[in-house]
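Much of our argument rests on the idea that a fold can be written as discrete symbols. The amino acid sequence and the backbone structure tokens for this protein are reproduced below:

___
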Amino acid sequence: MNADSADSAARQIREVVVVEGIHDRDRVLRATNADVVVTGGSHIGRGVFDALQRVAAGRGIIVLTDPDHAGEQIRRQIARRFPAAKHAYISRVAALNQGDGDIGVENASIAEIVEALEKVRSVWNRPDEVVSWTDMAAFGLVGAPRAAKRRERLGALLRIGYANAKSFHKRLNALSVSRLEFETALSALEEEEER
């Protein structure tokens, strides 16, 4: 038994992890001892939705898709049907294959996958805003020269993924990010930028 599979036995996850492809599944199985459902891409078949329906009510599901456009499409489709689904995010940098530029869960390190699954987020529909649009502008996350890069790095630090300004604002307020978490991650980002 190799070190990866020995470690994965200790990382049992109750929920079923949803990924895009079989290579993503294989990588997740190297990182953890979880049950995994493969969507087969952005055109999710009825059989996959039926399987997710069976497990969502009991065990729950964690969505771990590629940090790209297709992955976000899949995440939105699943979130619409299963609002109680949890979400795990891997940054675009961690999911990048340096050789061919491919972005995917299958390219992430075992440690990155484990951390993403340990820091899952649940959607919380609440009326109050933790981070306002004014905050977004004040902290250089919108309307600033490096706003996209700052959102990308802050999204990685908070484990909420990359998004355009409007979607990022929505995620900050919907994915149970506390004001303290936001300010702590922002401080870490500013320290990185000073180096």
Remarks:
- DSSP finds nine helices and five strands in the chain.
- The longest helix spans residues 179-194.
